[in-house]
Amino acid sequence: MKKFVWIIVAAAALFAVSCSVGQPAVQETGKPDMSRMPEDIGQWEAEVNADFERVIAALGTDEALTVMNEYDTKYGTNLAETFLPEINAARASGKGSSNYPPLTDLPVNRDGAIYLSGGATDLVGNVIGWVAPKNLPGGYYHGGALDLNKADPNNPDVPCVQTAIPKGAGYETVNDWRGKVNVCVLNPKTTLDAAKLDNAQNQMDYYCKPSNTNMEYGFFKNAINIFNVVTKEDMYTWYCTKVAWHVYNRYGLDIDSNSTLVDFTKSGLYGLVSAYYKTIYFYSSSKANAAINAYVADARKKIVLAEEIMLSPHLVKVYEKIRE
Question: Cβ contacts of residue 6 below 8 Å, gap of 6+?
Fold first, then answer.
């Protein structure tokens, strides 16, 4: 009889072990056991990836705080704290409309002028605004380039600022920019060749015109995929400052300063990448840090941000209003 009991016990133990092999250890709290190496790296990474995809999809939405808190609770990260300013702004502003009076003194008199905007109120629904570094006063993350030939001094609702809109590359109006929270205007430091600038703007108009919809809007390829940052040279996926950069690049000037004053470690993008790699490689801080540093170095080369344009040696600030 005792022998039979021991056989049953041994069988049960063997069954328990066989069921646990390849499964991430889960504590009674429901959290994964991150005190030791995962038994199945592939399964662990698949689980983290699925949870992280939900975080990325929630950026700029009302679900952001809930999803980030769930991820933080499960993995011990601090995403909700990192994005608290954006989350609070989204809650306070609803649809993101500014309550500030229009900037009627906004200069609209220099062809090729670069407009930059920032401010928490405008962040709602704007994924780029959530992830861009905001190191400098004004918190600038949005941008565009003025095509003065398209502007109408008697009609501020005429599309004339080449930027990005939901379809991809597109136009905004003077009134759109008068309604921004924080605004900075940068003029070329030197007199530009009018014919060359017109040609650059006309080339960009091919993508900005409303009839051209063969493109997408985004900071990343394939919707929201932070591991596939769109390059400046890409001609299908557009974001605002990339459009402004293209105008000048086609003219022959690179206005991406790549300034070290733009600290990527103080960006939402860094917060996301850091949380991801420190979760998926929790068992190796050196591996996590190496992955984070490699990502930042690659992103610096590929993207152009509002603050990088602001610090371009080819441009000079002629106007600025910071209201929050």
Answer: none
Q: Which amino acid is at 105?
A: D
Given a cut of 90, is residue 62 above it in pLDDT? no
- Look up tokens 């300034």; give the residue: 259
DSSP-assigned states of every residue in 71-134 = HHHHH---HHHHTHHHHHHHHHHTTT---SPP-TT----STT-EEEEE-GGGGTT-HHHHHSB-
Query: How far from 70 is each of 54, 129, 190, 278, 279, CA to CA, in Å?
Result: 10, 22, 52, 16, 14
Give CA angle at 284 (282, 289), nearest 5°: 90
The alpha helices in the chain, defined as continuous H runs, are: 2-20, 41-58, 64-75, 79-82, 84-93, 127-131, 174-178, 194-208, 240-251, 268-280, 285-302, 306-310
In sequence order, the 6+-apart residues with CB closer than 8 A to the CB of 324 are 119, 120, 121, 181, 182
287 burial type by CB count under 10 A (0-12 exposed, 13-18 middle, 19+ buried): middle
Sign of CA dihedral 70, 268, 168, 181: positive
- Residue 133's closest CA among 270, 310, 298? 270
* pLDDT of the residue at 57: 85
Tell me which of 3.40.630.30, 3.20.20.140, 3.40.50.12780, 3.90.1720.10 is the CATH number of domain 114-321: 3.90.1720.10
- Among the listed residues 321, 291, 324, the one whose alpha carbon sits nearest the alpha carbon of residue 104: 321
Given a contact cutoff of 8 angstroms between Cβ atoms, the answer to whether 239 and 166 are in contact is: no
Q: pTM for this one?
A: 0.84
- In tens, the pLDDT along 111-147 reads 999 999 997 655 444 667 777 888 899 989 999 999 9
Cβ atoms of residues 162 and 201 within 8 Å? yes
Phi, psi dihedral angles at 9 (to 5 degrees): -60, -45
